[in-house]
Design goal:
This protein is an alpha/beta fold. Helix content is 40%, strand content 18%. The chain is built from six helices and five strands, in the order βαβαβαβαβαα. It has a five-stranded parallel sheet, sandwiched between helices. Strand 2, helix 2 and strand 3 form a beta-alpha-beta unit. It is globular and about 45 Å long. The protein starts with a strand and ends with a helix. Bound molecules: 4'-phosphopantetheine.
Length: 158
C-alpha cells in the first residue's frame, strides 16, 4: 500500500492546506495527515482540537487518516511505515526553509523522500497564522478555511 504523510501544525487547516490534502490524497492509497508540534509556534488550539477540524474537513475523503504526535517527523514516518512526505510551497520564500527541513529529515532518515507541491496560486497568500489573527479579532475568515469547519474555527479562535 502506498502511503504519504502530510505533516504540519494546521492551526487551523486552511483552504490552501485542504487543496494540498485533496491533491496528495490522489497520489497514494492512504494519506496520513499528521498534526505535529512546531516549537516555533505557540499552538492556539490543542493538537487534538486541530486534528478534529482536519477530520471534519476531510470527511468526504475516505483515504485520509488524521493523527497527532509530539514526536520528531522522522519518528512519526517510521511509526506509520511511510517513506514519502508531502509539504506545500506557497512561494519561493517557503522553499528555503522547506528544502532545509527536507535535507535535515533525509539526513536523519535517508530512506525518506520529501515531495514539495506548489500551492494553488489562488491560495498562495493565505497563512494559518494570519487566519488566527483575523479570527481572534472577529474578522471574516470565510475565504480562508473550508466551509465545513468555518463555524468551529470562528468559535475556537475567537
Ligand atoms: O505547518 P508547519 O508549522 O509549517 O509545520 C512544521 C512541522 C510541524 C512539520 C515541523 O515543525 C515538524 O516537523 N515538527 C515535528 C518535530 C520535528 O521533526 N522537527 C524537526 C524538523 S527538521
Amino acid at each position: 500500500m502506498h502511503r504519504i504523510l502530510f505533516p504540519g501544525s494546521f492551526d487551523p487547516l486552511t483552504v490552501g492546506h485542504f487543496d494540498l490534502l485533496e491533491r496528495a490524497s490522489r497520489l497514494c492509497d492512504e494519506l496520513i495527515v499528521a498534526v505535529l508540534h512546531n516549537p516555533k509556534k505557540q499552538g492556539a488550539l490543542s493538537p487534538e482540537g486541530r486534528a478534529a477540524l482536519v477530520e471534519t474537513a476531510a470527511d468526504s475523503l475516505p483515504s485520509v487518516r488524521v493523527i497527532t504526535s509530539d514526536a520528531l517527523l522522522v519518528e512519526v514516518a517510521k511509526q506509520q511505515q511511510v517513506r514519502v512526505i508531502v509539504r506545500g510551497l506557497r512561494a519561493a520564500e517557503d522553499a528555503a526553509v522547506e528544502i532545509q527541513m527536507a535535507q535535515l529529515n533525509r539526513s536523519l532518515e535517508p530512506g525518506l523522500e520529501i515531495l514539495l507541491l506548489a500551492t494553488a496560486p489562488q491560495y498562495a497568500y493565505i497563512s494559518a497564522s494570519f487566519v488566527r489573527e483575523i479570527a481572534s479579532k472577529g474578522g471574516d475568515i470565510s475565504a480562508f478555511v473550508p466551509a465545513s469547519i468555518l463555524a468551529a474555527v470562528q468559535s475556537a479562535y475567537a
